[in-house]
Automatic annotation (TrEMBL):
Its EC number is 6.3.4.2. It comes from Candidatus Terrybacteria bacterium RIFCSPLOWO2_01_FULL_58_14. Signal peptide: none annotated. PANTHER family: CTP SYNTHASE, CTP SYNTHASE-RELATED. One of its GO terms (cellular component) is cytoophidium. Keywords: ATP-binding, Glutamine amidotransferase, Ligase, Magnesium, Metal-binding, Nucleotide-binding, Pyrimidine biosynthesis. GO terms for molecular function: ATP binding; CTP synthase activity; identical protein binding; metal ion binding. It comes from the Bacteria. InterPro entries: Class_I_gatase-like, CTP_synthase, CTP_synthase_N, GATASE, GATase1_CTP_Synthase, P-loop_NTPase. It catalyses: UTP + L-glutamine + ATP + H2O = CTP + L-glutamate + ADP + phosphate + 2 H(+). Residues 4-267 form the CTP synthase N-terminal domain. This is CTP synthase. Pathway: Pyrimidine metabolism; CTP biosynthesis via de novo pathway; CTP from UDP: step 2/2.
């Protein structure tokens, strides 16, 4: 089948769930038997998301091949239940870098290289490349930002050029926002009309409007949008807030979005039929499992990337949060996640006692010294009070620091990330990472992507995975220092996962504790609603058993 392309862009404002819309579209097309390849385009100059502050930009998601990208890639993977590569994440920075390098190598044969068409052409080349690699029937391209922004105009230009060449196989959807102003009390369509106009001025008429809002769109407003925006009523899709994101594919199918997409892209709806009941059986079972979950599973997440002052959670821990939900649902519980500011645990020791009220504690990944002593206190509390504990990356490293200090008697033990002169560098930088740091090669220079992990038979980890070996995704510069392995093990910490190629500790656990596991890798990146990560399931199971 000739590859079809659906460009999805935002209207009115960002942060309204465009990524979830794209992920849900990907899911419903996959459930009809189509091969789908989602691509995220970010209009910033950064080559990847690795150098960006998570507070500002949300989580940095890492693909198997080690690309640090936008968190939407995580949503795509979770909804599609497929692993994607770095090719699915495109930034303005990458495009310019490639074009300039090609020009320097005389790749343009001496002619003048211009913003148009050479930049959009490179975008198109990359989209086609993704289609070829994935043998995709449909490529869904999420263009970051909103229509009318200066930044993403060249990506819309790529869509326009593609559509000009092949109008039957290229479609455009606008995910727009319909506010309900407090004083008016009803949904307003005008901002969406203006967003459509902005898109039209970039030469693109949308085929679909996905109308995000607190409520469903009513018939008069659908008619109004159809009239003023030149979009068939049947292609105006109501997308009210959902109780949880995994519900959205079903909501879309209720609006018959799948059929309409197939029509618009000229794909046979007889061949790629809608599954009976709207969505395919595994996804339906997932929704049923979520609906039936009962009894709270209260997990505290001890971190520092919270919006300052307000305690509103940023997206910084998106995959961790989703993985915790997958784990809780898998054991039939309703997840209740509470954010604890690590710095508060430093200032106020009474805050520590609150931790005893939870079923489980999780210390996620992080960087630098801020909040570290608070995290160490929380870890000690979990160890001593036998509260199920999961430490991810920095969380694992700090659990080793805590154990070294308070159980092995190595006072002042630390990670050299925080104290380069510590007497006991139990966590230390890898030699090649140190060289890169010294040369100030920072972007893309961590230990990134998928690495093997051999599991120690009959450990907590091996029993969770039900395997002898696994592969997990990484993003870090520091490691457990093998010089301290002997004393740590002698005092009771078990190294239950090791990378066999380089003898690096991947998992450290405490036998005899109800559940105390730290991972050097990021298991949250591979947890999927249809396939919850085994360590999150084991953690949830142990947490559910805890009597508070
Ligand atoms: N800062 C630590 C390191 O670089 C941990 C990184 C992380 O948690 N992703 O090794």
């Amino acid at each position: 089948m000739i590859t079809r392309y659906l460009f999805v862009t935002g209207g009115v404002m960002s942060g309204i769930g465009k990524g979830i819309a794209v992920s849900s579209i990907a899911r419903i097309l996959k459930d009809r038997g189509l091969r789908v390849a989602p691509v995220k385009i970010d209009p910033y100059i950064n080559v990847d998301a690795g150098t960006m502050n998570p507070l500002e930009h949300g989580e940095v998601f890492v693909t198997e091949d080690g690309m640090e990208c936008d968190q939407d890639l995580g949503n795509y993977e979770r909804f599609l239940d497929e692993s994607l590569t770095g090719h699915h994440s495109i930034t303005t920075g990458q495009i310019y870098q490639t074009v300039i390098t090609r020009e320097r190598n005389l790749g343009y044969g001496g002619r003048c290289v211009e913003v148009v068409p050479d930049i959009p052409n490179e975008v198109i080349r990359r989209l086609r490349e993704v289609a070829r690699r994935r043998r995709a029937d449909v490529v869904i391209v999420e263009v970051g930002g909103t229509a009318g922004e200066y930044q993403n105009i060249l990506f819309l230009e790529a869509a326009r050029l593609m559509r000009r060449g092949n109008p039957r196989h290229i479609a455009v959807a606008l995910v727009s926002y319909l506010p309900i102003p407090h004083a008016v009390g009803e949904m307003k369509t005008k901002p969406t009309q203006q967003a459509v106009r902005a898109l039209q001025s970039a030469g693109l008429q949308p085929d679909f409007i996905i109308a995000r809002g607190a409520q469903s769109l009513d018939a008069p407003r659908k008619r109004k949008l159809a009239l003023f925006c030149n979009v068939d009523e049947a292609r105006i899709i109501s997308a009210p807030d959902a109780e949880y994101i995994y519900r959205v594919p079903e909501l879309f199918e209720r609006e018959r979005l799948g059929d309409r997409l197939l029509e618009t892209l000229h794909i046979s709806s007889r061949r790629y039929r809608r599954p009976s009941g709207g969505i395919a059986a595994p996804w339906r079972r997932l929704l049923r499992r979520i609906d039936r979950a009962h009894g709270e599973l209260r997990i505290a997440l001890i971190g520092k990337y919270f919006a300052t002052g307000s305690f509103v959670l940023s997206d910084a821990y998106l995959s961790v949060i989703e993985a915790l939900k997958h784990g809780a649902w898998a054991v039939g519980r309703r997840p209740v996640l509470v954010w604890i500011d690590a710095e508060q645990l430093e200032r106020d020791t009474r805050a520590l006692a609150v931790l005893g009220k939870f079923h489980g504690l999780l210390v996620p990944g992080g960087f630098g010294g801020r909040g570290v002593e608070g995290k160490l206190r929380a870890i000690r509390f979990a160890r001593e009070h036998r509260i199920p504990f999961l430490g991810l990356c920095y969380g694992m490293q700090l659990s080793v620091v805590e154990f070294a200090r308070n159980v092995c008697g190595l006072s002042g033990a630390h990670t050299t990330e925080v104290n380069p002169k510590t007497r006991h560098p139990v966590i230390d930088i890898l030699p090649e990472q140190e060289r890169l740091l010294r040369e100030r090669v920072l972007g893309g220079s961590m230990r990134l992507g998928l690495f093997r992990c051999a599991l120690r038979p009959s450990s907590v980890a091996a029993r969770a995975y039900k395997a002898r070996e696994t592969q997990e995704r990484h993003r870090h510069r520091y490691e457990l220092n093998n010089a301290y392995r002997e004393i740590l093990e002698r005092k009771g910490m078990r190294m239950s996962g090791v990378n066999p190629d380089r003898d690096l500790v991947e998992i450290a656990e405490l036998p005899g504790h109800p559940f105390f596991v730290g991972t050097q890798f990021h298991p949250e990146l591979q947890s999927r609603p249809l396939h919850p990560h085994p360590l999150f399931v084991a953690f949830a199971k142990a947490a559910a058993r805890r009597k508070r």
